[in-house]
Amino acid sequence: MFIFLTLRTFYTATSDGEWHHICTTWENSAGAWEFYIDGQLFDSGDDLSAGHEIPSDGIFVLGQDQDSYGDGFEQEQSFNGEIYNVNMWNRVLPADEILDMSTHCATGVGNYLRWSDFVDADVYGDVTKTSPTTCVP
Predict the structure, then answer these.
(1) What is the pTM of this model?
(2) C-alpha neighbours within 13 Å on the C-beta side of residue 19
(3) SS3 120
């Protein structure tokens, strides 16, 4: 089964060589979503895949666009940069918690997916596992 959530594209000034905290929330009943950069609300809306449920037996792909379920990866569509401390929760995080995580990178361990799940996972392609010497946004 393949679940497709509507695509939202954001053009931001996060490609400046600095670390940034990015957080997106979504709840499925009304499809309400929020997009935060460094603890500040950047954009929000509703009716994003309202009523959809994400199955627990799916796959989570980090840093790559997939053209079909678990396949269809193209080198030119891969993420180029550094990613650190990716987490996922099974609830919508409140704004004050997101702000706290944006200034204290050691906080915020997901209850669904944790950064350690990614660090311990297999990687493909030209990937180096590392962590920043400081993670102050």
Answers:
(1) 0.78
(2) 15
(3) coil
